Amino acid sequence: PRKTFSTNIMGLVNVMEAAVKTGVKAVVVVSSDKCYLPAKTPRNIHSPLGGKEPYSASKAAAEMVLGAYRERMNIIVARAGNAIGGGDWAKDRLIPDLMRALASNSPIFIRNPHASRPWQHVCELVHAYLQMGLHAMRGHHCSAWNVGPDRSATVGDILDELRRTGLSPRVVSRTNSFPENQILQLDVRETEEVLGLRSVLSWKKALSWTIEEYACIHSSSFSELIWERFCSLGSSDTSSTDST
C-alpha cells in the first residue's frame, strides 16, 4: 500500500512540478476506471470517486492533486479501461499471464471468472491520449473523460474466446482474496459527444489483434504491425468494420 500511494500520488506531484518548471502548456493525466466507487452500473464522469483498496483509492486521491495545477496549464484526465496488446509481460495481468501459461504449458490461476472489465487495445488508448493532448494544446481546459469501449467482457468471456481460436490454457480456480471491483463498465457517451473520441474495436477484435501480436513479437515485423494498426485506427474503414 505504501508504495502504491507513493507512486500514484507523489509520483504525479513530481511530474506536475516538472511540467510547471519547464513551461509545459498541456498535460494528459492517465488515471484509471478503478478510480470510481464500486457500482453495478456504468460509471460516467460525474460518478463519485473513491476506492476500497490501495490502487483505487490512490488513483482517486491523485486526481485531487490536480486542483493545485489547473490554473497553470491545461489538464485533461483520461480514466481508461484495461489496456491489452502484444508485448505486455507485466505480472498479475490476465492477458500476459495467459500468454505465459500457454507458452510454458503451465496452468493459469483465475480468481473470478465473472469479473468484468472494459478491455481495449493499447493502440486505441495511445490514439485517444494523443487526440486529448491536441485538444488541450488548442486551449481547451477540460476535466476528466472516460476512455474505453461501451461494453465490458468478463474474464470467462476472454477464456471462451481464446478457446474458440484454438488456444486452451489450463485454468485453475483460486479463492479471490483481493478486495477488487467485480464489475467495471464505463459510460463513454460524453467523451464521444464532446471530444469526438470513440472506441472502434470490439473487445473480441482487440483480443484477436493481441493474440496475433504475441505470436510475432520476436519477429522483425512486430514494430511494423503495431505501427500499421495504430495508423489504421483513424481510418473510416476500420471504424465501419470493427465497431460494436
Task: Identify the notable features of this structure and list them briefly.
single chain, 244 residues, alpha/beta, three-stranded parallel beta sheet, 13% strand, disordered C terminus
Q: In terms of topology, how is this protein built?
A:
Blueprint: H1 2-21, E1 26-30, H2 54-65, E2 74-80, E3 82-84, H3 94-104, E4 108-110, E5 116-117, E6 119-121, H4 122-137, E7 144-147, E8 153-154, H5 155-164, E9 171-173, H6 189-195, H7 203-215, H8 222-232, H9 236-242
Parallel strand pairs: 1-2, 2-7, 3-6, 4-9
Antiparallel strand pairs: 5-8
Helix pairs in contact: 1-2
Give an account of the 3D structure.
It is a single chain. The strands form four sheets. Strands 1-2-7 form a three-stranded parallel sheet, with helices on one face. Strands 3-6 form a two-stranded parallel ribbon. Helices cover 44% and strands 13% of the residues. It has 244 residues and is an alpha/beta fold. The chain contains nine helices and nine strands. Helix 2 links the parallel strand 1 and strand 2. It has helices spanning 2-21, 54-65, 94-104, 122-137, 155-164, 189-195, 203-215, 222-232, 236-242; strands at residues 26-30, 74-80, 82-84, 108-110, 116-117, 119-121, 144-147, 153-154, 171-173.
